Every structure is written in C-alpha cells, then in structure tokens.
Amino acid sequence: MILRINIGAFVLTDAVRDAVSALNEDRLFLRSTVAVQEGGMAAALDYLSQRSTPELLVVETTAMDEELFNELNALAEVCQPGTKVIIIGAENDINLFKTLIDQGISQYFLETVTAEELKTAIVDAFADKTLNAKSRTIAFAGLRGGVGSSVLAHNVASELARLYDEDVIIVDLDIPYGTAALSYNLQPSQTIADAIAQAGSLDETMLMRYLETGGKNVSLLCAPGNLNSGIEITPNALEAVLNIVKQMASYVILDVPHMWNAWVQDVVVDADDTVIVGAPDLYNLRDGKNVFEFLSPNRGMEAPTRLVLNKVGELRKGELTEKEFKEVLGTKPSLSIPFDSDAFAGAMNNGEMLRKVAPKSKATQEVETLAKMVSGKESLSKLTKKSGGGLLGSLFKK
Ligand SMILES: Nc1ncnc2c1ncn2[C@@H]1O[C@H](COP(=O)(O)OP(=O)(O)O)[C@@H](O)[C@H]1O
Ligand SMILES: [Mg+2]
C-alpha cells in the first residue's frame, strides 16, 4: 500500500522533527510529500494564513488551557475543510483530549511522538484511503516483448485464486495487444479502455460491469486487443481505476506491456510485488541490469522485486545461466521456467490455464511456486531451496 498525501509539519523539538522526517524513509509515503518547518503553532498559523493547507497538518505546541483553544480556533479558521490535524501538545488533560477529538483533531500526543506512533495515527486518519490495503498488487513485466510475462501473470492469477480461495482481478494494461482475454477464451464486450475513458466518474458498480469472469474467483479487466480504441492510459486515469479495482479483490494482477514511460514506471515501483520476466540471453541481461538498477533504489528493501527466467532451454546453445544473471544484476532469479512448447501452445490455443492442459509439467509446478512466493502468505525460505530467493537489497552489487 502507498499513500499519496501532502503533509505539512510545524515542529518545536528535535524528537518531533525526527519522527516526521522518518516518514520520508517509509515506503508507505513513497508518493507523499513531507514538508517540515520550525516554529510550531505560531509558524503554522502564519504560514497557512497565506497558503492553501496540506491534507495533513502535524503541529507542535506548548500552549495550555485557554491559550491552546484559542490557537486551535485560529488554526480552524485558516484550514481548508477536510484538513486532518495531529497535535503534539503539553496539556495533560483527558477531557481536553476528548474535546479535541470531538472538534475534528485526528490525534493528540502528549509532549512528543515517535515515528511509529505518528505513522499509525496517519494511517487511522486516512482510513478511507487505506481501505484498499486489504488487497495485494502484483505487477508482471517483461524485459523484452514475448518473454512470457503475460502468460505467467494470468497463470499466477489463477493459481492464487485456487490456492487461497480469494478473489483475484487481472488488469490487462496492454490496450492494443493485450492477451488476457485470449488466455481465458473470452470475448469482452467492455474493457479497460472503457474504464480509462470513464476514470473521472468510475465507481465499483460501474467497474463491475466492465469485468469478465475467468473461472472461480478470477475476474478480468480485459484489453480491447485492437488498434483503434483511441484510448491511451495516463498516470492519473490509471490511478483512479486501480484505486477502485483494489477495493474489489484480495489480489490485483497487473499485466504490464513492454514499454517504458511514466505510468509503467509508477506501476512497477508501486506494486506490492513486482515480477520481472526475462529470457536467458544477452539482450535480457542488458535490459535486466537497467531495470534492476532503476527498481532497486526506487522500490526499497521492503518491497520485493523478483526476476523470473522463462523459456529456459529454448536456445540450447549459448544460453546464459542463473549464475550469470545473479552476477550482473546482483539478484538471484527467484525461479526458472523451462521452455515447454507443448504446454504453452496447448494453453494458448485452447484459451486455458497450464494446470488444465499440462497439470504434471514442470512449468505448472513452477507457476504454483511463483504464486506462493508473490502471495505474501508463505515464508520465503520454504519456497527457495537455495539461499537468496531473488530479494533485492543488500545483495545488490554494482
Ligand atoms: N516457458 C515457455 N515455453 C514455451 N512457450 C512459452 C513459454 N512462456 C511463454 N511462452 C509463449 O510465448 C509467447 C509470448 O508470451 P507472452 O506472455 O505474450 O509474452 P509477453 O507478455 O512477455 O510479451 C506466448 O505464445 C506464450 O505461450
Ligand atoms: Mg504481454
């Protein structure tokens, strides 16, 4: 989950300044802005009288009794409606606390606050925005076109639905060329192009009409899969659509086209789990190095970025090994999936999942393991025989 809010803090003490500054290091606030100023309440009143208010104010004050109420009334006058306020104050009075909460102050901390307490208070204050925290977003992107990122996204989606009996929504972000509908043998009447076109007024009921069913627990927001939808994804429209999708399922699988632009970058950075699929050759190695050098610092250590090698064995000669990828990318592939034309061509031609057409194949087994890895439910050590597991972080070498 990632919160997109702007926060203004007016502090008096080092401890509170540090607590606020720590938000910048937290992935939850990756897309938030945090501005810290000295001077406490006086500075806040002065500053806000001339500017628009941030969505969240954190204000430190030493005022007591009447003086405190006068300050808060003055603050209310300069704040836009809907602004949330967290106060760190000196007055130790339980009635005061109740009155403040009644007046719309989100939280009152006595004397100081820790980074952890502040984070919890912000999550509570923005409960409406954190509602979709119940869903886990998993993005699939290929290092090159045709490496299998879409087919793996769709199969992992069906495995998640089967393994955990939870709702999964696949969002096909490849408007002209997307294949999710083909994978599930669907002829969608409405698609993501409709959702993007209606992004400004979209709600769950509307979005429900755009979804197709891909078996038990699986729904799809398909791509039109033709060249003349006339619709292009923009970062804002996509965010609006995804905010609604995330409230409708436990897992949201994003099938990301092989492109590199602002919204693709947002998607692969913001997803709870990002799976980068590559084939074991030199071009994929070069692109993999670039992609991991971008994703590693941008996603941070808390959010896994996985590399999956696919179509292993297709080239026979001259293929690169997992070890070579690890040396250059600094991350060990989470797993490798063999080239298996029978299984994959069978699935494609029938519009069925690998488990249906090739239940005993290595590919089906590996897809199940990948689903467990990205589920957020299983411990990683159980799933990886060898050390590593493809998690980025300290492993990353230049
Ligand atoms: N391991 C594999 N073995 C054989 N064919 C595969 C394998 N993985 C993917 N394919 C096939 O490769 C083609 C491209 O896959 P797709 O998922 O559309 O790639 P991408 O989304 O990365 O462009 C499809 O025909 C798919 O069935
Ligand atoms: Mg694709």
Task: Explain what the structure shows.
The protein has 398 residues and is an alpha/beta fold. The chain folds into two domains: 6-130, Rossmann fold; 135-383, Rossmann fold (3-Layer(aba) Sandwich). Helix content is 41%, strand content 17%. It has helices spanning 14-21, 40-48, 65-78, 94-102, 115-125, 127-130, 149-164, 180-183, 192-197, 204-210, 235-245, 262-270, 282-299, 322-329, 341-350, 354-357, 362-374, 380-383, and strands at 6-11, 33-38, 56-60, 84-89, 107-110, 136-142, 168-172, 212-213, 218-221, 251-255, 273-278, 305-312, 335-338. The strands form two sheets. The chain has an eight-stranded mixed sheet with strand order 8-9-7-10-6-11-12-13, with helices on both faces. Strands 2-1-3-4-5 form a five-stranded parallel sheet, with helices on both faces. Helix 4 links the parallel strand 4 and strand 5. Helix 2 (40-48) runs parallel beside helix 3 and helix 7 (149-164) crosses helix 17. Mean pLDDT is 91; it is low at 386-398. Bound molecules: adenosine-5'-diphosphate and magnesium ion (MG). Adenosine-5'-diphosphate (ADP) binds at residues 142, 145-151, 179, 258, 310-311, 337, 339-341, 344, 348, 363.
